[in-house]
Design brief:
This protein is mostly beta strands. The chain has one domain: Electron Transport, Fmn-binding Protein, Chain A (Pnp Oxidase, Chain A, Roll). Helix content is 0%, strand content 49%. It has no helices and six strands. The strands form three sheets. The protein has a two-stranded antiparallel sheet with strand order 1-2. A hairpin with a 5-residue loop joins strand 1 and strand 2. The two termini are 28 Å apart.
Length: 77
């Protein structure tokens, strides 16, 4: 919820390091993707960044899921 709130200190107290491209990377996550922005497209009041993946890393684990205003998990049917 820290990143969803309107505040100027979203990263306060968050453990992070810097990747090979010099971008900030959140520590203790299941996946990390480093990208290089190749184009910015404006649509109305929004900007869409098109990026090329330079490096990716993933671990096995249960991801955090947010759906219809609630946190949960994936369940096999």
């Amino acid at each position: 919820m820290q990143f969803a709130r309107s505040n100027t200190e979203k990263f306060k107290g968050v453990e992070m390091s810097y990747g090979e491209l010099g971008n900030p990377i959140l520590n203790n996550t299941l996946a990390q993707i480093e990208c290089r922005v190749v184009e910015e497209v404006t649509g109305g009041t929004h900007s869409v960044f098109l990026a090329e993946v330079q490096k990716a890393h993933a671990l096995i684990g249960d991801p955090l899921v947010y759906f219809k205003g609630e946190f949960g998990s994936f369940k096999k049917a």
